[in-house]
Amino acid sequence: VEELRLKGGAMSFKAVDVLGISFLQDYAKMFKEAGLDIELIVNPCPLGATEDELIAAGKDGDAIIAQVSYQSVTRRVLTHWKNCKLITSIGIGYENLDVEAATELGILAANVPDANIEDVSDHTMGLILACTRRIVHLNNVVKKGGWTSVASPQIIGEVWPHLSRLRGQTLGLIAFGKIPRALAPKARSFGLRIIVYDPYLSPDIIRRFEVEQVDLDQLLANSDIISIHTPLTAETKHILGLKELKKMKPTACLINTARGGVVDHKALYTALTKGYIAAAAFDVTEPEPINTDNPLLKLDNFIVTAHSAGLSPQALAEMQRRPGDEIIRVVQGKWPFGLVNPEVKTKYIKKWGKALK
Question: What's the whole-model pTM score?
């Protein structure tokens, strides 16, 4: 196997773990088993690390292991990482990585796009059921002594009027990437009709998954359940504010397993308390963790699950292993599997003098 070499021909490759995940995944062992002489340096930074902390931690790295959903890898940080050829992040999100700057600097950026697709789509289906069947509310009423008879007045008055049957309802998906594509057949098995808002969706995908494409206003007006799956970008920040929430059915449920910042949380509280929508179930919030005094936490029609949708022993093992795999691929002369900036390839080859396969 032809390994990656720096200009001048001397082999020198350092992998720096600025996340501190090496105590869970033995990257050094992975590199050794692959027959590669890669030095592992562990310089963990907090998830809210400053630019200077990240610069100092990763300054010697040819590859950086990070969590760019929470560690802010800015243009300034990237500029100071003089040797950096690859940033490989845990998880699917990379909203705090300046991808444009990484591309300009010839740095490969890789995420883990597929480790928890089934987990998040399962969790989303669970939140849909929790909202439409009021499972959490019923549980809380019973545990507080509210189930006093077969026809408990509290349950009849508070909960039963809000239970709904899934079959025949419409599920609206905001974005239609890998996770909602895995969700679609699960939702169909419950008899849900599926409509999609995704301005970047190709006609081939629409045909293959047999979904109906609509604009955002149509989705808001016609959906009984809306599930958010878009990444957080400047374009999607607070894409659902009070104006949009008021367009939803008063009986509708809103599910978010994507990013908290896609929804204006103050507007969400208003919508839930004024009856503009019936219920919401979020795995993600803005900020994270959610503030303990956030008024949403006092509402029976709001469920929150601590950014846990993508977690399972299987998904965690895959996410923890993948950065090591990506480093090995690059050193062996291959493009990363989870490359998020494929347009970097020309600059990478020009800067580092190596064409990968």
Answer: 0.89
Give the mean pLDDT of the chain. Answer: 94
Over residues 90-117, the pLDDT tens digits come to 988 899 999 999 999 999 999 999 999 9
162 is catalytic: no
CB 258 within 8 A of CB 230: yes
Q: What is the pLDDT of residues 180-206, one digit of tens each?
A: 999 999 999 999 999 999 999 999 999
Task: Answer for the pair 230, 196: CB distance below 8 angstroms, yes or no.
Answer: no
Catalytic residue among 158, 212, 288, 318: 288
Instruction: Report the C-alpha gap between 269 and 242 in whole angstroms.
Output: 9
Describe the strand order of the beta sheet including 225-228 as a list of residue ranges: 212-213, 193-197, 170-174, 225-228, 253-256, 279-282, 302-304
Least confident of 102-111, 139-148, 183-192, 287-296: 139-148
238 assigned to active site: no
Catalytic site includes residue 307: yes
Candidates 134, 229, 259, 322; catalytic one: 259
H helix intervals, the chain: 27-33, 51-58, 75-80, 99-104, 117-132, 135-143, 153-158, 178-188, 203-209, 216-222, 242-245, 265-274, 313-331, 345-352
What pLDDT was estimated at residue 10? 42
Q: Which tokens is 66 given?
A: 């990070």
Which residue in the list 307, 322, 326, 329 is annotated as catalytic? Answer: 307
